[in-house]
Amino acid sequence: MKINAQRLLDNLQRYAKIGEAQKTGVERIALSEEDREARDLLKQQMLEAGLEVLIDRIGNMIGIRKGLRDVPPVTMGSHLDTVYQGGCYDGALGVLAGLEVIQSLNDANVITEKPIALINFTNEEGVRFAPDMMGSHVFAHPELLDEILESPAYDNAQDTVGSRLKAIGYSGDMPCGSMEPDSFLELHIEQGPTLELEKTDIGAVEMVQGIYWTLYTIKGQANHAGTTPVPYRKDAGYAASEVMHYIGDYSRKANSQVLTTVGTISFEPNAINIVPEKAGFTLDLRSVDYEALKQGQIDIDQKIKAVVQAVGLSLEREEMVRFAPVQFDKEVVGLVADEAEALGLSVKRMPSGAGHDAQMMASVCPSAMIFVPSVEGISHNVKELTHPVDLENGTNVLLNAVLRRAGED
Ligand code: HGY
Ligand code: MN
Ligand code: MN
Fold first, then answer.
1. Per the CB 3.0–4.6 Å rule, which of 110, 163, 208, 253 could disulfide with 352?
2. CATH 3.40.50.2000 is the classification of domain 5-208+326-406
């Protein structure tokens, strides 16, 4: 069975216009007005496709297509929110490909044995509210809901997850995690260079690497840039720069198994002629190897403490995210590989460098992911691109894997 590729491509372009800002690609930050606009369009399209649409208390949108039997649904999903200056495929492909699968089944008047569900998860990116993979995390751990509803925006503590969900009209009443999926499949762009370099059509993703996010604030003393001799300085900026160098070198060591990224930094008072009093920065630490991940965090924390003490400053540290590496279900990974091969596509079993909602769903039900190539491996960038043929291939694999899992009538 095949999808209507042109309808999928047209729909992807339609959503790409929501949040489109010249030169900055697509910005649909979670719980923003742009996120609301995309959610409203998806809700309308889910209803038009005959789905029952439910909104849970963390704002996850769940569309359910009835099956012949009243059993747990085969579930697809991803996220419509983006990073700042993002691309139009990260997340959106998984949601809109799932919608296309449902529309294609409708066109063919196929009723599957098991129901089929499609989920748009809240705040996968975590660029304004921590943690990332928020909606799927709470789906898997409903006990975290109240605490996460209080999570403040990094840039404005007045905005919390709960207040923004209400503001955009997606503070649902369905209890989180109350739908028990049969299985979960997420189609996603690879966001790395492997598939393109190896000229491979499909990635059958076996695992997702672990992710640790930590916020550090080094505190010194503001002072005059021109009158303060070096021995009198308590320069938080200088300490932060020394630490950042160590962090960068850490992932560049021979045989390093971890990736380190300092993606944000801020100085206070942040003026050209004032020795910085405060330096805030975040560490994004990743590894496929859990021991290497934990050891990397220990090593970097020890270094930061040593630098701060050596220059007589103080340190605040906040653990934002601690996600261990996740293995996907062998049977579902095999289903992805088999269906790709049945379509005559080349397949590579591989890990995911990026975090995904599927890594949260893996603790709820048998889950796996389908990757399609990213041109030049670029993502989280306005240049993010995946060729139409690859978008079509990935969606056809999703369609046939879901059909096989849900049982065709
Ligand atoms: O951070 C990640 O890996 C994902 O894009 N949220
Ligand atoms: Mn994503
Ligand atoms: Mn992303």
1. 208
2. no
